[in-house]
Amino acid sequence: MTMVSDGSNDRSAREADAETPRHVAVIMDGNGRWAQARGLPRTEGHRKGMETVRRIIRHASKRGVGHLTLYSFSSENWRRPAEEVGFLMGLLKYFIRRDLAELHSENVRITVIGEREDLAADIASLLGEAETVTQANTGLNLVIAFNYGSRDEIVRAVRILAERVARGELAASEIDRDLLSATLFTAGIPDPDLVIRTSGEQRLSNFLMWQAAYSEFVFSPVLWPDFDEAAFDAAIDEYNGRERRFGGVGVRQGAK
Ligand code: FPP
To answer: Contact, 216 vs 239, CB < 8 A?
Structure first.
């Protein structure tokens, strides 16, 4: 495994490492089951899951991942009991208040994707602060998907483009894949090379559906609170063993 050895903490320099995926996106699943297996309330699973979040951010940064997207709260998660929703909101606030300064000093940039309008003012303002404080950082781009849902994201982008067409600023024929991509919350972020889902579930659950069109998927049986550096490395090793063809013929077959 080639690790970047120049000590650089710069995203563009680290992206030159061919064996490290440029963008890893993670569906952090299994917090509830982890807690239930121990006779604990589900919220304890989220609390432990938060510790995994902190470890994996540091590890991904060290490994030279350029962009790490974490599915932290989906637009469907509002359906959970109010107490659990409140706990998850509190955890996000705690994370930003506790970790922002340290992540900033580690050159981590924070980007938030998802709908902000439905969020409480204090949460929206903390998310905005995290982005503003770190926007010039050139290390790992930590993308927090919060109140995020892929279908809503696509509908929102279509509406923005339709309004531009209605105002006469854009011809419908000018709408193409690149323009739609540039109108999503993820504008400017490369598509994920690797999507990891923990806990053995094998679904996309409304996560980055447009962006993951050609991503590799690794489904880890490990519950998110138990997911550690070794499990992350194992997922990257599995990714490196795959041949990505992007709809083409692929190097091995093409060479025949
Ligand atoms: C899925 O487990 C996990 C979530 C819905 C929340 C994930 C949140 C965190 C790990 C902490 C917050 C992170 C940040 C960056 C603020 P589940 O509850 O669906 O587990 P289950 O399928 O076992 O019930």
So the answer is: yes
Check if the beta carbon of residue 154 is closer than 8 Å to that of residue 209. yes
Distance 46 CA to ligand 1 centre (A): 6
Q: Which of 142, 215, 152 is nearest to 185 (CA)?
A: 152
- The span from the CA of 116 to the CA of 106, in Å, is 26
User: 29, 31, 147, 193: which is the annotated catalytic residue?
Assistant: 29
- Sketch out the chain's domains with CATH numbers: 21-148+191-240 (3.40.1180.10)
- In degrees, rounded to 5, the angle at the alpha carbon of residue 80 between the alpha carbons of residues 191 and 48 is 70
Helix, coil or strand: residue 148: strand
Cβ of 205 less than 6 Å from ligand 1? no
Active site residue 10: no
pLDDT in tens, 89-129: 999 999 999 999 999 999 999 999 999 998 999 999 999 99
